[in-house]
Hints:
This protein has 366 residues and is of the alpha/beta class. The chain has 12 helices and 11 strands.
Amino acid sequence: MSTSSARQPLQFAYWVPNVSGGLVISQIEQRTHWGAEYNRQLAKIAEQAGFDYALTQIRFTAGYGAENQHESVTFSQDLLSHTTKLKVIAALLPGPWNPVLAAKQIATISHLYGPRIAVNIVSGWFRGEFKAIGEPWLDHEERYLRSEEFIRCLRGIWREEHFTFAGDFYRFRDYALKPKPLNPLPEIFQGGSSRAARDMAARVSDWYFTNGNTPEGVAKQVADIQTKARQQQHAVKIGLNGFVIARETEAQAQAVLAEIIVKANPDAVKGFQHEVKNAGSASPEGEGNWAASSFDDLVQYNDGFKTNLIGTPQQIAERIMALKHAGVDLLLLAFLHFQEDVAFFGREVIPLVRELERQEEAAAVL
Ligand SMILES: Cc1cc2nc3c(=O)[nH]c(=O)nc-3n(C[C@H](O)[C@H](O)[C@H](O)COP(=O)(O)O)c2cc1C
């Protein structure tokens, strides 16, 4: 359990639907749109609703329903320009991005909009995408070695007056980035579940994101990462993915889940399954992000049904507290009808979580 943060209020992030088709691979009606106007409105609703962060996705090609994909850094910048408090996390894929371009882009965005920009360094899972854009497909462990160098370079460029680095993937000599980003420096997120993903988090990331899971499942990952992080005097926080279906009754919420799964597009889910199992089982220990995902789990891109935030606001708030006790610092949430569901979550669920947190705080003081 991350004792340092157990008493901090849990933070909330939402997935920006900057990729078409929403966050489930299903033909169910979704009143979510991937375009600019919908997302600007959503960002305003989310900050009003009490969300701390928005996470943009990076995809370069279609596949499994994601016909259109807006680019993450540009899109993040636009959301910052339409909000005042929300922090926006831009996904960066090493390969298409190199660290100096990323460091410079993000530094400028921090000056334009204040220090509300953060980054999510993704390591890649979609071999077909790499092939389509002419990027070499490194094996699983090499992808993480490159991501770790990428993170070390970003932070070094942002922090040091003159940055020098000699790695296997990147080299810098006395490089002086000016201006530096505003303080506090942009936070660095990274995601996965594999041994390599966890070890990288324990060494260099500010935040570790992982796929949907139960409190028991996530507690195991937290213990593993936090033990190693402490040994290395590194502080890392934990973000967990979840798909929320909050309705007035549990039966209504379960009916929506059943409809999402019944209307899943089987060919697209199977294609996604093939691609991600390929990526996950490529990690030597076989504990990658989707190593144990069933067909139903994969209808949500990041195993979000497993987190079980499906029910009434009260049930969801109680389950959120169990996740917090398991060491989760932030919940990264996806929804079916983003604008209306985010507003409902902010009105009906977040206040219950804050109340439960206050009760725990008071009980701890006694
Ligand atoms: C919360 C989260 C967000 C992610 N966002 C992206 C993304 O935008 N683009 C992408 O190509 N991969 C994304 N990934 C995939 C990861 O970078 C990584 O390739 C994948 O989780 C493989 O993990 P593994 O090493 O555990 O198999 C994301 C993963 C997580 C957990």
